[in-house]
Recover the amino acids of this structure.
């Protein structure tokens, strides 16, 4: 069977309602012979925003330092294989099919979430392929996330915490920070990005409770831009590296986290330089080819905090009329996402997400834009939206944003 067919089989085992628990994961991993106990040294990454970018920089750095690196991330943009990298390469179709079949057999028809099953498959694949490091990105939250079964990671990383997935993680920033801090382990050092005061306090209490030593931005290390370079100072000294190749001021903050983490892992200058120069992470302020005179950008951010950093990035670009092309899942609040962007854009065209029934109707998004003072229109597709923008706003900067699913459709040629 193809990986597509096998993944569809796993979807049919998904519980009707998601209840965050590690019980199903522990059962499945025991049936598979506990592959999570045979992984290379793990760097476990949680947070609301910046996890993927920090992981990309860490991977580039560790590989630049001569290491073989596994990496697990979610969701994918174009095809599932992107989620599992074995020693630097996307998992092959043959290898993916093999581990998915093993997971389906070991699960024996029991209820299992799609993320739990595919995380177990990633563990099986990564336990068998030799590597020096294993980067694990949390899928949702931290404490009860399927990745949080590794008992003794080499390092934990917590990127900035913000409001997101409140239906699962809690209504307040403090509650969400508590879930993210659930990845902390006794005796395992953790690098923590700069946080809101309430989130930082929660993380510090959680660390004290489990006995996890923290390296917190603003207390134990500092990063800032000086003369067009990133300077990071920690308790062992100061490093001066290029600014990250990933675009946007928020990526400078993410780069500081990555540098602090690499320093905590004992990596040298080659790794630090490579982390800044070689990181690749699509759909994060990604510049696309121009079309009909339009300057095109793509960003997969989909919560208010991500919109805020996107707005900061747009503010740093040369002045140009900016139009948003937006699609969003129905569990997102368009007005909350669009509010930080309203000062940067004059107009918005809302579109559907291809093949995604759980998306907002374009009219909902367009109405939210009009309520914020932007011109809000609808289009039946991305292509139609770009044609409309080219006519009404010739030469504009167009930012396609609001959903990783939309970003994946763009990159995969489906939009």
């Amino acid at each position: 069977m193809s990986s597509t067919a096998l993944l569809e089989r796993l979807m049919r085992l998904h519980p009707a309602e998601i209840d965050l628990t590690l019980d199903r994961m522990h059962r499945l991993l025991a049936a598979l012979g506990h592959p999570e106990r045979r992984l290379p040294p793990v760097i476990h990454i949680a947070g609301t925003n910046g996890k993927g970018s920090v992981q990309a920089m860490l991977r580039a750095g560790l590989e630049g330092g001569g290491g073989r690196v596994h990496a697990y991330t979610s969701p994918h943009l174009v095809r599932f294989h992107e989620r599992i990298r074995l020693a630097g390469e996307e998992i092959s179709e043959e290898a993916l099919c093999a581990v998915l079949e093993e997971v389906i057999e070991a699960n024996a028809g029991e209820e299992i979430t799609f993320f739990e099953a595919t995380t177990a498959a990633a563990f099986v694949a990564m336990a068998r392929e030799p590597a020096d490091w294993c980067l694990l990105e949390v899928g949702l939250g931290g404490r009860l996330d399927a990745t949080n079964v590794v008992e003794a990671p080499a390092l934990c990383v917590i990127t900035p915490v913000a409001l997101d997935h409140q239906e699962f993680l809690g209504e307040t920033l403090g509650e969400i920070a508590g879930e993210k801090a659930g990845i902390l382990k006794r005796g395992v050092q953790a690098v923590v990005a700069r946080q809101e005061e309430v989130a930082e306090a929660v993380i510090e209490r959680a660390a004290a409770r489990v006995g996890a030593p923290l390296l917190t931005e603003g207390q134990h290390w500092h990063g800032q831009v000086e003369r067009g370079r990133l300077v990071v100072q920690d308790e062992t000294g100061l490093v001066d590296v290029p600014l990250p190749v990933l675009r946007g001021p928020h990526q400078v903050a993410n780069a500081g986290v990555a540098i602090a983490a690499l320093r905590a892992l004992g990596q040298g200058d080659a790794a630090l330089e490579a982390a800044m120069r070689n990181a690749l992470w699509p759909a994060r302020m990604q510049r696309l080819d121009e079309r009909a005179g339009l300057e095109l950008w793509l960003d997969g951010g989909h919560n208010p905090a991500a919109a805020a950093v996107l707005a900061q990035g747009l503010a740093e670009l040369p002045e140009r009329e900016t139009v948003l092309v937006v699609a969003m899942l129905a569990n997102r609040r368009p007005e909350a996402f669009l509010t930080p962007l309203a000062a940067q854009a004059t107009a918005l065209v809302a579109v559907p997400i291809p093949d995604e029934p759980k998306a907002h109707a374009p009219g909902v998004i367009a109405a939210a834009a009009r309520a914020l003072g932007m011109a809000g229109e609808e289009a039946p597709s991305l292509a139609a939206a770009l044609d409309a923008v080219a006519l009404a706003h010739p030469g504009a900067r167009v930012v396609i944003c609001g959903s990783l699913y939309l970003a994946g459709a763009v990159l995969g040629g489906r939009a």
User: Anything to note?
Assistant: The chain is about 40% helix and 15% strand. The CA atoms of residues 59 and 69 lie 7 Å apart. The mean pLDDT is 95.
